[in-house]
Write a structure and sequence with these properties.
This protein has helices at residues 3-20, 40-54, 62-65, 69-78. By secondary structure, it is mainly alpha-helical.
Length: 112
């Protein structure tokens, strides 16, 4: 389990125990948050707390879009995946030396 996954799971277990009296061993990855007693208001508060735990702003609808601990953890750990590097764009024609332009063209693509 990644660091984010562990922090998220720990935060969920802690909050559900504090807010709803759910025993830590009763928090399972496939059980919907609403079955623990999560309300819309609590969902927004929990989303803010999770955002602080992972160091980024999260959408207010996150817990409704990912309604189980497993789905939430998968979504948040996917945010950790580095994005593939984008290929460098070729330099603009104007940055090329004049002798690199096709014959008869000036910088900017206009014939001379």
């Amino acid at each position: 389990m990644s660091g984010t996954a562990g922090r998220v799971r720990e935060g969920l277990v802690s909050r559900f125990a504090d807010w709803y009296g759910v025993a830590p061993e009763d928090v399972t990855d496939d059980r919907p948050f609403t079955e623990y007693g999560l309300t819309s208001r609590d969902g927004v508060v929990l989303t803010v707390l999770l955002g602080q735990a992972v160091g980024r702003s999260l959408p207010a609808t996150l817990l409704w879009d990912t309604p189980t601990p497993a789905a939430l953890i998968a979504a948040l750990t996917a945010l950790e995946e580095p994005e593939p590097p984008t290929p460098e764009a070729p330099p603009p024609t104007a940055a090329l030396p004049p002798d690199a332009l096709p014959p008869g063209e000036a910088a900017g693509g206009r014939p001379s």
